[in-house]
Specification:
single chain; mainly alpha; 2 domains; about 80% helix
Length: about 425
């Protein structure tokens, strides 16, 4: 009897491995991970090339404009969430023609705010130039056009995600950053400077839109009367707050640093901010996995607390690994990413590594709260964002001062969210994750 079990163990292992290799879920996750990895590498390459070519002063302008762009893409992320949820529902009901109708209607709806953001960018360009101490208002206009285009990109991306066409979605995500970085090299080589960096963002977004819409060519003819977009808005409130809040936490400091610091110092701080986000993006997949697992655990009266602790442990392990690298070779990291002109950032590489870990854990807890539909985190996160703005406005003597401001907000927020999670655990019930249309 025992020998049979022992002999069967290798077969069990082989069977499990075969199950994993045959699993569509594993393949889809791997496919999307590759696209995200290419996009992440492309994003850091974009910043590294801009920093090397433009130096701290010019890169400070690029970093602050990209921070504004990142906050503006929160609209894009929300639209993707809404459209993916709706497209998945329509596909499950066999209404593929309605998905084309969804594509058309959502594109029409996006058109008006997209036109408005371009007009706003044109009108507000001089004011933004003055506040951010930019050399010209022109990059702000290009930024506004790029935002309008990336909002349109949310339509094909939401449909690709909702219909589980992950290979096309992965190619779209990675392709945008590859095109952006490639055109950055070209545009900087002809002397377009900061404006060239923003035009590269626009071209990358435009390429993603064209490729994404081409990916919808398989959809059957429109099926009018089956799409009611308002029914999806209730799903997104907590996601909106969580997404925008996290975006603000790792972008507002760059925007304010550009306003309060000298051009040289603002560029140095922009580089440090990108180093901090290495840890955040390295651990982002952990929170993406946590969300559905927590929903399932609460619905089945499982152990969501264990999932949260395990996810925090994984995040901490990955984050501390990155921090170890920051501690051992900070100079190499700065020189490779940004060049010798950023050497004054070297002493602060390790502190911003810890900031990145704190931000990752903050995001993990926020994903947990969104999964269980607990909105107590909303005022907490809003207060943290406000506190960051106030602290930087009051204490901005130099780059190190703003690093301290950000660290204080990130870790006070972490402690507050952790205490909320501990108090919430005994109150979790299946009805908290009920799917309400």
């Amino acid at each position: 009897m025992n020998s049979t079990k022992v002999a069967g163990r290798p077969a069990d292992v082989v069977g499990r491995l075969k199950f994993l290799t045959d699993s569509s879920l594993v393949r889809q996750n791997l496919t999307l991970f590759v696209g995200g990895l290419v996009a992440g590498v492309g994003g850091f390459a974009y910043h590294a090339l801009a920093a090397h070519e433009l130096g701290p002063k010019g890169y400070g302008e690029v970093a602050s404009l990209i921070a504004l762009y990142s906050i503006g893409t929160s609209v894009n992320l929300v639209l993707i969430l809404v459209l993916a949820r709706y497209a998945a529902t329509l596909q499950a009901q066999g209404k593929m023609g309605a998905i084309r109708q969804l594509m058309v209607r959502s594109s029409v709806i996006v058109a008006l705010p997209a036109a408005a953001v371009v007009l706003l960018a044109v009108v507000m360009a001089p004011q933004v130039q003055s506040f951010e101490k930019l050399g010209s208002p022109t990059p702000v206009v290009w930024l506004g056009i790029a935002l309008a285009v990336i909002w349109f990109v949310s339509v094909p991306r939401g449909l690709l995600q909702g219909t589980q066409r992950f290979a096309s979605l992965s190619l779209n995500l990675g392709g945008e950053l590859v095109v952006r970085t490639g055109f950055l090299v070209l545009l900087l080589s002809v002397g377009l400077g900061v404006s060239g960096a923003m035009i590269a963002v626009l071209i990358g977004a435009g390429a993603a839109y064209v490729a994404g819409m081409f990916g919808q060519r398989h959809l059957p003819p429109r099926q009018p009367g089956s799409v009611h977009l308002r029914t999806m808005l209730g799903f997104t409130f907590t996601a909106v707050i969580g997404t925008v809040g996290i975006l603000i936490l790792y972008n507002l400091d760059v925007i304010l640093a550009k306003h309060f610091l000298s051009p040289q110092q603002a560029g140095i701080y922009g580089g440090l901010n990108k180093i901090a986000t290495i840890t955040y993006f390295l651990t982002l997949s952990v929170s993406q996995v946590l969300f559905p697992r927590v929903v399932e655990a609460v619905a089945r009266r499982g152990h969501p607390g264990r999932l949260l602790l395990l996810s925090a442990a994984i995040t901490g392990t990955l984050g501390l690994g990155a921090i170890l690298v920051f501690a051992v070779v900070p100079g190499l990291i700065v020189k490779v990413l940004f060049g010798p002109a950023f050497d004054s950032a070297i002493p602060l590489v390790l502190p911003v590594g810890f900031i990145g870990l704190g931000l990752s854990l903050d995001n993990l807890l926020i994903q947990f709260f969104m999964a269980v539909h607990d909105r107590v985190f909303v005022p907490i996160l809003v207060l943290a964002c406000a506190a960051l703005a106030v602290l930087i406005a009051l204490f901005h003597a130099g780059v190190a001062s703003i690093v301290v401001d950000l660290a204080a907000v990130i870790y006070v927020l972490l402690v507050t969210l952790a205490l909320r999670a501990v108090r919430l655990m005994p109150q979790l019930r299946p009805e908290m994750v009920a799917d309400t249309p």
